[in-house]
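Form P-L/3: holo structure prediction, ligand heme C.
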Amino acid sequence: MKQAWILGASLCLAVAGVQAQSVSEAISSHLHLGVASCANSVCHGATETATKASIQMNEFAVWQEFDPHAKSYQTLLSAESKSIAKKLGLGAAEQAGVCLDCHADHVPAAQRGEKFQIEDGVGCEACHGGAEPWIASHVEASHAENLTAGLYPTEDPVKRSALCLSCHAGSRDRMITHRIMGAGHPRLSFELDTFTWLHPHYTVDDDYEQRKGNYDGVRDWGVGQASAAINALDILLDPKAGWHGIFPELVLFDCHACHRPMSGKAWGPRQGTGLGPGVVRLNDANLLMFRHVLAAVDSNAAKQVFDGSRKLHQATTTDREQTLAAARALRERLMVLRETTKATQFPAESLGVILGSLVADAERGEFRDYAAAEQAAMAVQSVVVAFEGAGLLDEAATKRMQQRVDALYASIEKDESWSMLKFTEALRAVRAAAP
Ligand code: HEC
Ligand code: HEC
Ligand code: HEC
Ligand code: HEC
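OUTPUT (holo model):
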């Protein structure tokens, strides 16, 4: 395990210099043929899961019936969307580019094939990339050949997280601003491993692992946290997306730093920020989580992220230049640590270490901010599934753990009336049930 960690550290030096293409550039670089082009009954439109093929073959049916992405364009026709668009002075939401960017496969007209329909919402090619160069050959070709032809590498946690986050957190070129939130858009929250398995049209079996490598939920949770933090720093560092008038973009800050009753008197110190009362805090939930991932494999790296985050928080109380400098330094560190995380195989012992590290932080009051508690709950879910996967839980223990994870989720059900103490208790109970 140590070796994998060191190997990862040298690998990442090789990738650090490469200027990556943005997600929307990668996704829209080829013609999009439309969902109908994938949905034939002998292709991805089977009604039942195939037993002989390496894939399910019923991807279209699963997507259409269970996956909210299939209805994301319809959402823009709802009364809620009308109200949001009206408050923003946008006209019809289903025609507003800013809404279509995330609620549909919004490629330019020149990139749309004959069967393409914007009404299909977030269709196959919004995630797998324009199919034109590979549709004819992809059944016979190897996975590597398909990737070379332009299929987007959704199995790669770094690439997948960038893809999902471009809509689930917003990115420099697909922004969700505080103005959009202010008009009534729901707050966004995302965790890579949890969301990958909410409505899947894929399974990971031996055949999958042979074609695409192994799936490790703890690794993907970790990579997803680093990606979310990097994505937020990218927005902060962007002179256009990161600022609005005299204020930095408020969507990057902890919503509940401003949105809570004045009578609550709920302020308390946090080591992770070192800030006093009455200061607007950047949302650091992903940075906080990434430290817990690292705690299991490299405590020195965890300390670097802690120090870098604290420096960034402190810099926000001095001036813009120091804030940007601290953001740049932290981003550089995270880019390296994300690659080492991707190359890490988390041993069974690390699962307990991660839970212990989360509980210790909760007891220190680090999860004062709702967004952090919410991320911690999703983290616990990923770690518990990994315990099961590692064969560390028998059936009774699995059931007991799951009940306690459900109670943990219940403790944060309402963002406006949750209690940090109840959350901490529920987290302790999960830890106590772990092997
Ligand atoms: C092009 C934008 C876009 C991309 C890319 C995208 N999503 Fe989504 N996703 C959405 C939108 C919009 C919704 C909400 C749909 C609705 O209810 O109208 C959504 C909803 C979801 C939901 C349902 C959430 C819930 O509360 O039930 C899950 C799960 C999800 N996405 C996972 C993912 C994952 C995993 C990825 C990356 C592999 C991803 N998404 C990539 C736009 C996107
Ligand atoms: C950066 C991407 C992004 C942009 C821009 C965006 N949305 Fe969304 N929207 C999402 C995602 C992701 C969700 C799903 C949130 C979840 O469930 O986790 C969502 C959810 C919604 C919902 C709630 C859907 C439900 O099922 O409850 C409405 C309504 C909505 N969006 C309308 C709009 C409108 C109108 C616009 C344009 C003003 C817009 N959105 C712009 C990403 C975006
Ligand atoms: C929100 C993003 C998203 C959308 C939309 C989407 N997929 Fe996927 N797809 C994924 C992810 C994530 C995976 C799993 C990771 C991987 O193996 O690449 C996947 C995997 C697959 C696989 C491979 C399964 C395997 O065993 O290798 C197929 C085939 C597939 N999708 C087809 C489709 C089809 C057809 C559609 C449209 C009906 C579609 N997908 C829509 C994200 C998406
Ligand atoms: C720096 C403080 C600050 C932060 C941080 C902040 N907001 Fe706001 N929010 C405001 C202000 C100020 C308004 C405008 C209130 C008004 O118009 O009366 C507002 C308005 C809103 C409204 C409209 C409320 C209404 O009554 O119409 C929503 C919804 C909202 N914000 C959501 C969010 C979300 C979600 C986040 C985090 C992603 C967030 N805010 C972060 C200060 C903040």
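COMMENT: The first strand starts at residue 243 and ends at 244.
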